[in-house]
Amino acid sequence: MASSTRFSFVLFLASSLFLHGALGDIVCEDLPTDLCSFSIASSGKRCLLENYASKDGKVEYQCRTSEVIVERMAEYIETDDCVNACGVDRNSVGISSDSLLEPQFTAKLCSPACYQNCPNIVDLYFNLAAGEGVFLPDLCQAQRTNPHRAMVELMSSGVAAGPAFSEVSNFEGEPAAAPAFM
Length: 182
Hints:
43% of the residues lie in helices and 13% in strands. The chain contains eight helices and four strands, in the order ααββββαααααα. The strands form two sheets. A two-stranded antiparallel ribbon has the order 1-4. The chain has a two-stranded antiparallel ribbon with strand order 2-3. The chain starts with a helix and ends in a 26-residue tail after the last helix.
């Protein structure tokens, strides 16, 4: 009976390793560039689309692992539905809060289709806004009631005055916790 248990354990372990290898981990550097932006690696770090000049002078793109850790998600590639609902671009290079200054983008981000159904994108922009001293739920509320005032408040927060972030991890201080999605 002990050998039967041992055999079962070995079989289970081998199956687990095979299944894990078959399903695979998400490694940002292995993703095609058209799936890179808004993806999260198995390590829980955000993937980041970067560009560089190749030897012949052409602009090339590559997917890299950023140092930005997503606390409640891992192994995630954003859906086309969320990309469309939130008004984001899979070909965007880097991670920046600049788009929060665009009223059309903020309207899509704060729309129920995005805000209530796309926790990955909302979490990203929640933290970007927090890095600029803006609380995203307040910005979305202002966007719904008075879009012009929302932009004035955002611009007065300093987001327009400082340099754009190339990565979320560049801001000082502890970000506020993103809204919990269930």
